[in-house]
Amino acid sequence: MTLESTLEVVLNRSGYNVFHYDRLNSLTLPRIVYQRIDKVTSRTLTARSLDTDRFQITVFTNTYTEGSLIADEVVRLLDLNTTDFMLSYFDGRTENHEVELKLYQVTLDFIISLRPA
Q1: Could you write out the DSSP letters of every residue in 41-110?
Q2: By CB neighbour count within 10 A (0-12 exposed, 13-18 middle, 19+ buried), where does 84 fall?
Q3: In the chain, what percentage of residues exceed pLDDT 90?
Q4: Average pLDDT of the chain to the nearest whole number
Q5: pLDDT score of 26
Q6: Sign (positive or negative) of CA dihedral 61, 65, 70, 74
C-alpha cells in the first residue's frame, strides 16, 4: 500500500468523509481533506537519513466545537502511530473561520513515514 492509501485507511477510522485534496468531490460536512505538502529528510549523527513526508490534514465543519473534536480525533489516530506507520507525529495546528461561508477549518500538520515493504 502507498502512504496515501494507508493514511486514508487510518483517517477513515474516524467515521467521517475523507478525501485526497485532488479528489474532493463532496461538499458534505463534516469532511477531512489530506494532501502531501513536502518531503523532509532527517539526518542523524551516524550519517543515516530518514525520508519522511509532510502532510496537511484539514477538517471542515459548520461549528467550531465539531471541528475541534474531529481534529482532536485525527491527532489521536495519527500522532505517534507506530502500528500503521514507521513514524508519524503531530507538527502543528491552525484554525480558521470563514464567516461568510459559515465554515470552520482546522488544519493539522503531520510528518509521516511508511514502513519499508
Answers
A1: EEE-TTS-EEEEEEEEEEEEESSHHHHHHHHHHHHHHHTT-TTT-SEEEEEEEEEEEETTTTEEEEEEEE
A2: middle
A3: 64
A4: 89
A5: 65
A6: positive
SS3 state at 22: helix
- For residues 52 and 75, the model is more confident at 75
d(CA 17, CA 79): 20
| 19, three cell numbers | 478525501
pLDDT at position 45: 73
59 sits in the region (left: phi over 0; alpha: psi -120 to 50; else beta) called beta
Distance CA 105, CA 116 (A): 33
Kindly report the pTM of this predicted structure.
0.87
Domains of the chain: 3-113 (3.30.2000.10)
